[in-house]
Amino acid sequence: MELAEARPTSRSRARGQQLGKLGLRVAAGSYLLLMVALPVATLAREGLSRGLGELGRALVHPVARAAILLTLQTALVMAAVNAVMGTLIAYVLVRYRFPGRKLLDVLIDLPFAIPTLVTGMMIVTLLGPHAALGQLFEAAGFRVVYAPPAILLALLFVTLPLVVRTVQPVLHELDGADEEAAYTLGASEWTTFRRVTLPAIAPAVVSGALQSFARALGEFGSVVVVAGNIPRRTLTAAVHVFGEVESGDVHAASAMSLVLVTISFCVVLVVSARQRGAHG
């Protein structure tokens, strides 16, 4: 009798667990569809609403074309610098012990906590035409703020943690025996890093750099403050989108946004494939 009563209870519990898991999957999937897929689909519909020909004409406009090129150029340079310096910072934080290391490690995440508009103001305050340092650069014939170098600096600041935080865990997981063996055989620290450490962390470095690149494509808050937003000179794609929305040309803004989303999505796919390959 007790056995017969226990069986329905076990079945009911198993059915309840299955329904609970199904409910969690439905809730997660619905939220992703609502927050990500629906806005992207709406943007694609608006961008393609007048056909591919009109989309192409909106993108080949001289101002739009220059904005895309400037965005891609600064993002590529930023990603290359981040790949080198982010890897260097991660290596120093993991391999060395020195006073202030923990504080430095905390500072890495500060760019994520600071509003991007504040980032732009910091750069203007430090290097603007009314700042002492900015005046020194201008006296030497080199303008930083309201010119492409300021865009690059803003992108470097806001994306700094991406490479560092991607490479750090991989360095922590590396077996130090290979490095110790290289040192024992007489290899210098640079040779050991180049031949032993770097090949092991290279996938993480590339993934972090690609994430930085994708993040930089849509950066607006810091760039709109420091760039000067001069068409065909310092106007980036994200700021161009804002300008088109302000002027009422939603189709042109959607066309540019669709290009940025497509590039970012392709980069995310590459990063995801690399990470699956590294763990596979």
Shape designation? globular
- Radius of gyration using CA atoms only: 25 Å
| Main sheet characteristics | none
> How far is it from the N-terminal to the C-terminal residue, by CA?
51 Å
What is the residue-averaged pLDDT? 86
Discrete helix count? 13
N-to-C SSE series? HHHHHHHHHHHHH
Low-pLDDT regions: none
Number of E-state strands: 0
Content of β-strand:
under 5%
Class inferred from helices and paired strands: mainly alpha
Q: How helix-rich are the residues, as a percent range?
A: over 70%
Structure description:
The protein has 280 residues and is mainly alpha-helical. Helix content is 82%, strand content 0%. The protein is built from 13 helices and no strands. It has helices spanning 2-47, 51-60, 62-95, 101-107, 110-113, 116-127, 132-139, 148-173, 176-184, 189-217, 221-226, 237-246, 250-279. The chain starts with a helix and ends with a helix. The mean pLDDT is 86.
Q: Which descriptors would you attach to this protein?
A:
single chain, 280 residues, mainly alpha, 13 helices
How would you summarize what this structure contains?
With 280 residues, this protein is mostly helical.
Record the SSE blueprint.
Elements: H1 2-47, H2 51-60, H3 62-95, H4 101-107, H5 110-113, H6 116-127, H7 132-139, H8 148-173, H9 176-184, H10 189-217, H11 221-226, H12 237-246, H13 250-279
Helix pairs in contact: 1-13, 2-13, 3-8, 3-10, 6-8, 8-10, 9-10, 10-13, 12-13
